[in-house]
Design a protein that fits this description.
about 30% helix; two-stranded antiparallel sheet; alpha+beta
């Protein structure tokens, strides 16, 4: 009986991991999926999209460290960097930032993607 229970548990875990794998995503910024960008690339093409999931992006949060070392978050209501975000990206003091809480709709269900770290190269 114990063996049957463990077998059923193992099969259930495989199905869960398979269904989670189907909901994979890639954040694309300006058509690239890299983690390092020049400031000019991001300013020229500030659109953020999700690939491999068919979802529609409806907002995200950008978090960065300011000159005092404090974490500051700015929220965008759509799938592009806002003017305030582009101002931060333009600053030579900012070397990296995080895209967090990417909200998108997929099949009528609201989903949230965790985060992606972006490094700015000069």
């Amino acid at each position: 009986m114990k063996r049957i229970y463990l077998s059923l548990l193992f099969v259930a875990m495989l199905q869960i991991s398979h269904s989670m794998a189907q909901n994979t995503y890639t954040l694309s910024i300006g058509g690239k999926t890299d983690t390092a960008f020049t400031r000019a690339e991001l300013i020229k093409n500030p659109a953020i999209t999700l690939t491999e999931n068919g979802g529609t992006l409806s907002g995200f949060t950008m978090t960065y460290k300011n000159i005092d070392g404090d974490l500051v978050s700015i929220t965008s209501p759509d799938g592009a960097f806002s003017a305030a975000m582009l101002g931060v990206i333009s600053s030579p003091d900012v070397k990296k930032f995080w895209i967090e809480e990417v909200v998108y709709m997929q099949n009528g269900v609201r989903q949230i993607v965790k985060f992606k770290e972006i490094h700015l190269i000069d």
